[in-house]
Amino acid sequence: MKAAQITGFGAPDVLQVNDVDRPDPGAGEVLVSVEASSVNGLDTIVRAGGLRIVTGGRFPIGVGLDFAGVVAATGPDVQQYQVGDRVWGSVKPLKRLTAGAAAEYVVVPADRIGPAPAGISPVEAASLVVAGTTALIALRDTLQLTSGERLLVRGAAGGVGTAAVQLAHAMGGHVTALSRGGHAGALRELGADEVFDYGTTTPDQIGPFDVILDTVGTELNGYRRRLTRAGRMATIALSASSMAAIAASSVHGARRIRTLSANPDTVLLRALADHVTSGGLWPVIDSVYPLADIAAAHQAFERGGVVGKQVVTVSGE
């Protein structure tokens, strides 16, 4: 089968599509014929070598976290899925694999997939797995957004940001989006009540907010000061500066900054599918690339300045 692989740490041109052995599912596992995968921030961080202490330096390393496709085979003890079922899911983050989700086939534990929501294509489904579950966990569990609360989404035009704007709107929140000024129309269509240009807006010019979801990782202390007395803030962007802000906020108790990451399982994927089928969440896709052009998809992700996700299409046998 064909699989995109990292052949060395560096820029997107270290990505190559190679021939590898097709895996077989073991006990409790499912073999999925992948139709689409998306580009996520963790993919680019791993590719650039930012997590080499975890991934190690042996190459090649598989790339791609989330996928949508069709069950091609099941291992022993798998009763809930049949060959031909349409599913979506993800590989385990940071588990060293020679083939990740950006491959013609992927083997995953059965509890890491769920039935793909009806009414959307595999490309659309793949765009939502990591971004959608991250936004859902952040708003529902970490920040516990309630109807009527004022929410700020920083980096609102990205994959997690566009999902968060929609989900927060559906949950009854008053949504303020911070992004490029040119994205205002698109974000208002997704449910944002207000949109500010991050290039011309400072933290003290907006707010206060009951809840802040950050996907950027900078100026966290400045935005934290815009929280109400019982306000909550979380970031998904981990860097040296963001980790320092998180640590400092924990010392001061109230209004501390939390961090989170989604680890999609069947229960979470079913909850996300419910939001899709109810109309509260819709895929937002910037561009689609064939597997052979996955390096270009990574380049587009890192360039930024777009609304939505970069998706890679894959052709299984």
Question: What would your notes on this structure say?
Answer:
With 317 residues, the protein is of the alpha/beta class. Helix content is 28%, strand content 28%. The strands form 3 sheets. Strands 3, 5, 6, 7, 8, 15 and 16 form a 7-stranded mixed beta sheet that branches. Strands 11-10-9-12-13-14 form a 6-stranded parallel beta sheet. Strands 2-1-4 form a 3-stranded antiparallel beta sheet, with no helix packed on it. Helix 4 crosses helix 5. The longest helix has 14 residues. The protein starts with a strand and ends with a strand.
Keywords:
317 residues; alpha/beta; Quinone Oxidoreductase, Chain A, domain 1; Rossmann fold; seven-stranded mixed β-sheet; 16 strands; 28% strand
CATH architecture of the largest domain: Alpha-Beta Complex
Which stretches of 5+ consecutive residues score pLDDT under 50? none
Q: Average pLDDT, to the nearest integer?
A: 92
CATH class label of the largest domain:
Alpha Beta
| Distance between the ends | 9 Å
Structural class: alpha/beta
Helix-strand blueprint:
Layout: E1 2-6, E2 15-19, E3 29-38, H1 41-48, H2 52-55, E4 61-62, E5 66-74, E6 86-90, E7 105-109, E8 113-115, H3 122-126, H4 129-142, E9 150-154, H5 159-170, E10 174-179, H6 184-190, E11 194-197, E12 209-214, H7 220-224, E13 227-235, H8 240-251, E14 257-259, H9 266-277, E15 285-290, H10 294-303, E16 309-313
Parallel strand pairs: 9-10, 9-12, 10-11, 12-13, 13-14, 15-16
Antiparallel strand pairs: 1-2, 1-4, 3-5, 3-7, 3-16, 5-6, 6-8
Helix pairs in contact: 4-5
